[in-house]
Amino acid sequence: MAEAMLAVEGVHAGYGPRLALKGVDLHIDRGEIVALIGSNGAGKSTLLMTLCGHPRAKQGRIWFEGRDITRVPTHDLVRCGLVQVPEGRRIFSRMTVLENLQMGALTSDSRHFRPDLDRVFALFPVLAERRAQRGGVLSGGEQQMLAIGRALMSRPRLLLLDEPSLGLAPLVVRKIFATLEEINAGEGVTILLVEQNAYHALKLAFRGYVMVNGVITLTGTGSGLLANPEIRAAYLEGGG
């Protein structure tokens, strides 16, 4: 099997003495969209934060493109191409849309700024229309688009997304997921997607993992997990 782009091996992590991750193993191959689903409090967000260095893994190893990144500082991970869109967007609300995108580009070569900005505006035309407005006055969906756009300005090779559909209207959710598919198919960006909206996540994903109480309990193709009666009963009732 070809070397995975990201490999998580036996990772334990948490905050203080409490372990939120208890020996997690998963891998992501280059070009994939992989979904991580589970109930609230399962440890999904902690895994994404651990991949980015906060908290640090207490046990186990994390490999990215063949490099052990378990102890690499977060700012260096961004330069390596591993970029997170955090839960709750966390845009700079007092900065304009354009200034937020400029912040995302700080780790990239300045020669890429204009074509990367044009790419983000093509994906999200509303951001071009609102480029001079402060981030804090945008709608929730527009802020999520801005958070994704800011991450894309960092030229990620692996994009980590934490609950991108949270609190958004169904029409906006469909737009966000269609854009993620375009980013992956059109530009080759590999994606790890953490989502409570299991239906949309598994419909988009090549493969998926199910996490329960800090442990991966099931893995399979996105379509296979969608069809699994146990998964449907636990996560998909009323989905769609």
Unreliable spans = none
Query: What structural class do the secondary elements suggest?
Result: alpha/beta
- State the end-to-end CA separation: 34 Å
**DSSP summary: helix tally:** 10
What is the radius of gyration computed over CA atoms, rounded to a whole number of angstroms?
17 Å
CATH topology of the largest domain: Rossmann fold
In CATH terms, the superfamily of the largest domain is: P-loop containing nucleotide triphosphate hydrolases
Structural shape: globular
Mean pLDDT: 93
Largest sheet: 6 strands, mixed
CATH architecture classification of the largest domain: 3-Layer(aba) Sandwich
The strand line-up of the biggest sheet is 6-7-8-3-9-10
Could you tell me the number of beta strands? Answer: 10
CATH top level of the largest domain? Alpha Beta
Number of domains: 2
Order of helices and strands: EEEHEEHEHHHHEHEHEEHH
Instruction: Estimate the helix proportion, in percent.
Output: 25-40%
Q: Please report which band the strand proportion falls in: under 5%, 5-15%, 15-25%, 25-35%, 35-45% or over 45%.
A: 25-35%
